[in-house]
């Protein structure tokens, strides 16, 4: 049987590392991509069936090299997980253009660049793409003028690509995670935000990276063979309630 290959961006830690581990458990091989070479080496060192690639998803030349290295190592790519992301929680009037561009470069340009670069390889395998957005892309609130806008754009980009790439047999879906205890979240979630999330989420807790990974691997699998253009909120019920973001 053919071993399937996933390329996961932002794979050195958090949700991307959890997705990598779950793909491996399900018998896939994984090209682990991250711009943090030290953290990527530490995360990938003990894993069998992975190929670490240091690349920044917001830089076109590095994305092309990433694709070439992954194809040289594995010869095929069955799934692309556009997970690399950065967060900025700051009141809108104080957000500089440089900060805005930094968020857009990774969260939005990175999804576009990786998708463009890997579309030919994914057309060969009739593969799948999963983009990682956020509940901040579903609901507007304070503090997230750049982050929330970048994630709302990823949700729409998912639908655009689903419409365009369906004729090639490529499915494109999106996950909107609620708060998950990772380095990214802990850097921007002040204590009052954490408390408010607990109140706003029916399941009364943060999610675990593994719970987001389950959604990612499902959407990349044959079990989701007729699902495309969708956004799956993995959020403890937050989106269902209509309560505002903390
Ligand atoms: P994390 O900070 O733990 O991991 C993100 C990884 O992406 C890091 O290893 C980082 O080095 C890498 N990365 C960042 N920019 C990159 C770039 N330009 N090129 C290559 N690698 C890059 O974050 P996480 O919480 O695991 O987040 C993963 C994704 O999930 C992000 O897109 C994030 O926006 C989204 N998300 C997270 C949460 C949460 O609460 N943690 C909630 C909703 C959505």
Automatic annotation (TrEMBL):
Q: Which Pfam families does the UniProt record give?
A: adh_short_C2
Keyword ATP-binding recorded: no
Keyword annotations for this protein, in alphabetical order, are:
Oxidoreductase
Extract the InterPro entries matched here.
NAD(P)-bd_dom_sf (IPR036291), Sc_DH/Rdtase_CS (IPR020904), SDR_fam (IPR002347)
* Domain of life where this protein originates: Bacteria
The terms under GO molecular function for this entry are:
oxidoreductase activity
- What EC number(s) has UniProt assigned to this enzyme? 1.1.1.-
Q: Which family does it belong to?
A: Belongs to the short-chain dehydrogenases/reductases (SDR) family.
This chain belongs to which protein, by name?
SDR family NAD(P)-dependent oxidoreductase
Species of origin: Paracoccus niistensis
């Amino acid at each position: 049987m053919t071993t399937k290959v996933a390329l996961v961006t932002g794979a050195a830690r958090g949700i991307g590392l959890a997705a990598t581990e779950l793909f491996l458990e399900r018998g896939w091989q994984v090209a682990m991509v991250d711009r943090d070479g030290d953290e990527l080496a530490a995360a990938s060192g003990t894993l069998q069936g992975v190929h670490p690639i240091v690349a920044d998803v917001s830089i076109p030349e590095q994305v092309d090299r990433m694709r070439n290295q992954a194809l040289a190592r594995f010869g095929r790519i069955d799934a692309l997980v556009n997970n690399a992301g950065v967060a900025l929680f700051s009141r809108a009037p104080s957000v500089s253009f440089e900060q805005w561009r930094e968020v857009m470069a990774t969260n939005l340009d990175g999804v576009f660049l990786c998708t463009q670069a890997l579309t030919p390889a994914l057309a060969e395998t009739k593969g799948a793409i999963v983009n990682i957005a956020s509940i901040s892309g579903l609901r507007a609130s304070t503090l997230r003028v750049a982050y929330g806008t970048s994630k709302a754009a990823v949700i729409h980009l998912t639908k655009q690509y689903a419409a365009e790439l369906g004729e090639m047999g490529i499915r494109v879906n999106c996950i909107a995670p609620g708060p998950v205890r990772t380095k990214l979240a802990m850097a921007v979630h002040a204590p009052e935000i954490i408390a408010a999330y607990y109140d706003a989420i029916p399941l009364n807790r943060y999610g675990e990276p593994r719970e987001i990974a389950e959604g990612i691997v499902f959407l990349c699998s044959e079990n989701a063979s007729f699902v495309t253009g969708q956004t799956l909120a993995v959020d403890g019920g937050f989106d269902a309630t209509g309560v505002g973001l903390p």
